[in-house]
Amino acid sequence: MPEGHSVHRIARQFAVNFVGHRVAVSSPQGRFAEGATRIDGRVMTDAKAIGKQMFLEFDNGLWLRVHLGLYGAWDFAGNISIDPTIASANGRMGQTNQRGTDLGGGSGDDRVFDDAGENSLHSIGAPRRTRLRMAESEKVEAEITTFPPEPIGQVRVRLLTDTAVADLRGPTACEVLDRAEVDAVIAKLGPDPMVDSGPEAEERFVTTVRKKQTSIALLLMDQSVVSGIGNVYRAELLFRARQNPHTAGKKVPVETLRELWCDWVRLLHIGVETGQMMTMDDLDDEAYRKAMASRDDRHWVYKREGLPCRVCGTHIVMEELGGRKLYWCPKDQK
């Protein structure tokens, strides 16, 4: 499932390529036909993300709400331009395993290639006719010869301008809402550092957690407590804080909760800027390049079960918690 940094980066690409344009909206598979007619032919006026949810506004006051969930993905085709605020970091489109990143914000010989040997700054281009898929661990790209291309697979909704097209498949949620309904959805979400990283958001997070008997590991994944954290960030944040994942929220020291919040602010901004869930600090240039080239060298504990902890050497543990895999070090996170 895409974590918060990915959805923010996707929203930024909509802002660059669709906001301000009149959009033809359809449902090739037919399941979203009624919703599509409500926003078909309208101008997109805003694109924003809060946590794992994205909201696209149209000039008739209606919004398209999308939650990709476990299986959702976007395909983009056409003259897709890169958001300059993130292209300066590495020109990537926001998914954990998409290809290539720059070291130090460059755009030439310092470009880093990942295990697949593909660099997304080059392959996406700005602008050029491409087709690419945005999901948590998948990107498929191919040149197109006609525009718009035919939909591929079960496309729930297609958004089409004169120069760009976005196809959505397999989302958990895809619905048209009015402003009041959008506000109601957002009101149920915890704070998102990309929307508000100030002291009130921090205090809201701390106060909410301190009222809960639920384990901190489950609370960090609860989108009503804090927005955007998924399985990777959850494991890494807890390790970085040396916090036992099973401690009840109300028993976690306030200082630790504030540290977790501030660390989430930092890691989320890094993720949005680079497109990678980079959670290791103080790497030299060689180690940084190695980490960006392979997720095996990018995280402290995530997917490292049975391997020695990078700090103490104790084997990392993996267990099921709330239907998801939890990774942690039983010595450093006592």
TrEMBL record:
Cite the EC number. 4.2.99.18
FPG-type domain residues are 300-334
Species this chain originates from:
Leifsonia williamsii
Obligatory cofactor(s): Zn(2+)
Q: Which PROSITE patterns would you find in this protein's record?
A: FPG_CAT, ZF_FPG_2
Q: Which UniProt keywords apply?
A: DNA damage, DNA repair, DNA-binding, Glycosidase, Hydrolase, Lyase, Metal-binding, Multifunctional enzyme, Zinc, Zinc-finger
Return the similarity comment: Belongs to the FPG family.
What protein name is recorded for this chain?
DNA-(apurinic or apyrimidinic site) lyase
Q: Which CDD domains match?
A: AcNei1_N (cd08970)
| Domain of life per record | Bacteria
Domain named Formamidopyrimidine-DNA glycosylase catalytic: residues: 1-91
Cite a single Pfam family from the UniProt record: H2TH
